[in-house]
Amino acid sequence: MKLRKLSIFDGVNVLFLLGLCLLVIIPFWYMLAVSLSPVSESVGGRFYLFPKEFTLEAYRYLFSTNQFVNSLGNSIYLTALGTVVNLIVSITLAYAISRKTLPGRKIMLLLMLFTMVFSGGMIPKYLLVKSLGLLDSYWALILPAATNAFTILVMKTFFQNLSESLDEAARIDGAGEMRILWSVVIPLSMPIIATFSLFFMVSYWNDFFSAIIYLSNPEKWPIQVLLRQMVVVGNSNFANEANLDFELASQVGDNVKMAAIIVAMIPIVLVYPFLQKHFAKGAMLGSIKE
Q1: Residue 96's domain is classified under what CATH number?
Q2: I need a labelling partner for 19 at 20 to 30 A (CA). Which of 52, 67, 76, 101 fits?
């Protein structure tokens, strides 16, 4: 087997892609190196890729604070519950709209398209959440974001592309709509369900703005809000608002901040490989109508 000679274009292309990879990898590697360094080495904002002294004191400090562990658990709970709610609402609504026999189907589609162009804004949304009594509750983060028009339209297109003969065969066997959805449609729709599951999980895990607006109790803060207090607001406010021990809080340096960021990244990084095989396929299947 003869090896193809690399052209000048191939060489430039490889170097360019390697450069892009380094631009992405180096910041994460730097954060990992700082998180594994002692406080004395991380002070001053010096750039290095390998710690002179390896230590896990930053991670031990983080997991010794109740607020960090509690916030991590809050994020896991919020992400799991929010993803399940989003999937239930999106799948059932998209399946209903994909049925051409549904009364008022066109009007519902027009209303969904309208929401893609116009929205009430942040203040009316806050007033609505407040009037429903959802303030300082995780439902204030989940229910307003239970689904969106883009998700519904993509899933609807995917469901419409499934063979109608499968539905007809199930109906001949006496299956109702819910039985068809659960036993026929969902097993055939795993690529697009896995794709949007990842979208929903990343959205809930990384969301901090909604939590800042609707959650006033620090005990209910997700991890991203706590990270904001640590990295952006500063150590003093972090200690005051998170109710941490001041002696421990005085030790918060760049190594602890980087360690917190690394820990916050790990769950999504671990989940992605399990959904990756469906991701590329699912992202395209529902966006093209045959």
Answers
A1: 1.10.3720.10
A2: 52
